[in-house]
Amino acid sequence: MSASRLSLALDAPGALPPEGRILVIASGAAGDLAPLAKERCVVVEGMRPAHDALTAAGWSVVPEIAEATGDFAAALVLVPRARAAARAAVAEAARRVRPGGAIWIDGQKTDGIDALLKDIKARTAPSAPIAKAHGRIFRIDAGPGFGDWRAADILPAPGFVTRPGVFSAEKVDAGSALLAAALPARLPARIADLGAGWGWLSAAILGHAGVAEVHLVEADHLALSCARRNITDPRARFHWADATRFRPARALDAVVMNPPFHAGRAADPALGSAFIASAAAMLAPSGRLWMVANRHLPYEAVLARHFREQAEIGGNGGFKLLSAARPLPTPRPKG
Question: What is the set of domains in the chain, with CATH numbers?
Answer without folding.
Answer: 3-149 (3.40.50.150), 154-327 (3.40.50.150)
